[in-house]
Design brief:
The chain is built from ten helices and twelve strands. The protein has 306 residues and is an alpha/beta fold. The longest helix is centred in the N-terminal third of the chain and has 19 residues, at 89-107. Bound molecules: NADP nicotinamide-adenine-dinucleotide phosphate and glyoxylic acid (GLV).
Length: 306
């Protein structure tokens, strides 16, 4: 019986140390150097290469090392076992810290002043009146963000697949209510999972539903956005600025127009990074549940894809 970590291109030594400490009797193997694939019962994965789990004949469960599972589900040879993902209040707090910081950046027009500094341009202007926020995706992260902005005095609307009730938040559900959710928001925050339904969902038609001059923040997945439509919306003034933490291709390729666009702020997918200790605790809990034949915490609905 062992746990395999299939997390390429990342230093997982601290995660291994945490797991060894919490599960001293369990062998922790690291892909691609899996000595005994037939012993692997539990796999922890992040952007695993397609087919890399296929040799784990006794695999019982897969744990995503992140909140999102889109990269896990692209593997066409994924074994047919339960899949779980990270849900961590600390991760949600980190996401809120990023979002409230970026909203302040846009309120104070710091995006413009940072742009002006190398040009030695002195262009004082009063803060932008950003008072209403729409949150697309009202799950673990979206609800925490919506609650924060309500408490901070913003008008908040939320949009999800199924109807929700959240004190103080105007909640909308389904494609038919998308326009109502976004049409009066000064800031639109994307916290949707990437699925078949949300792939390229934010296209020209959807950006045209936004309030003219809105600020757009994408902290979900890059492929939810049609890049060309986003650039066109910025160039036409339908959006006044965009803050992008996630991209269709990561790292964002050299020469991509987002890098130099004066109305775009780029951050390298850092808005909420998996915390090793809390992730290790959840991995251990799910490994033990798996051994005892109990349902995993935070299991993914494979049909919905999130
Ligand atoms: P979650 O709990 O699964 O919530 C997803 C929300 O999106 C739910 O409210 C869901 O609606 C809604 N949704 C899904 N499909 C929809 C559709 N077709 N139309 C309308 N609403 C839809 O996910 P989470 O934990 O909040 O995380 C959201 C995403 O954030 C993750 O999938 C990941 O991609 C991203 N993320 C990014 C970072 C980063 O560092 N940038 C960090 C962590 C996570 P229902 O409530 O009706 O099901
Ligand atoms: C990060 O993007 C995550 O899904 O946890």
């Amino acid at each position: 019986m062992s746990i395999a970590l299939v997390i390429p291109d990342r230093d997982v030594s601290r995660l291994v140390a945490e797991l060894n400490q919490r599960l001293p009797d369990v062998v922790i193997e690291q892909w691609p150097d899996i000595a005994q694939p037939e012993q692997v019962e539990f796999a922890v994965v992040w952007k695993q290469p397609a087919g890399s789990l296929a040799d784990f004949r006794k695999l019982k469960a897969i744990q995503s090392y992140g909140a999102g599972v889109d990269s896990v589900l692209t593997d066409t040879a994924l074994p047919d076992v339960a899949l779980s993902r990270i849900v961590d209040p600390g991760l949600a707090d980190d996401m809120v810290r990023y979002l409230k910081t970026m909203v302040s950046v846009y309120q104070l027009r710091l995006d413009r002043f940072i742009h002006d500094q190398p040009l030695q341009q002195w262009r004082p202007k009063r803060p932008r009146p950003l008072e209403s926020i729409a949150v697309l995706g009202m799950g673990a992260l979206g609800q925490t963000a919506a609650n924060h902005f309500i408490k901070a005095g913003f008008q908040v609307s939320g949009w999800s697949r199924s109807a929700k009730q959240l004190t103080g938040v105007r909640c909308y559900a389904g494609v038919g209510q998308f326009e109502d959710a976004v049409k009066s928001a000064d800031v639109v925050i994307c916290l949707l999972p990437l699925t078949k339904e949300t792939d390229s969902f934010l296209n020209e038609q959807r950006f045209n539903c936004f309030k003219p001059g809105a600020v757009f923040i994408n902290v979900a997945r890059g492929a939810i956005v049609d890049d060309r439509a986003l650039l066109a919306a910025l160039d036409m003034g339908q959006l006044q600025a965009a803050c992008l933490d996630v991209f269709r291709q990561e790292p964002l390729p050299a020469g991509h127009p987002f890098w130099h666009h004066p109305q775009i702020t780029v951050t390298p997918h850092i808005s909420a990074v998996t915390n090793i200790q809390t992730a290790a605790a959840q991995i251990v809990e799910n490994y033990q549940r798996c051994q005892q034949g109990q349902p995993l915490l935070h299991q993914v609905d494979m049909q919905r894809g999130y």
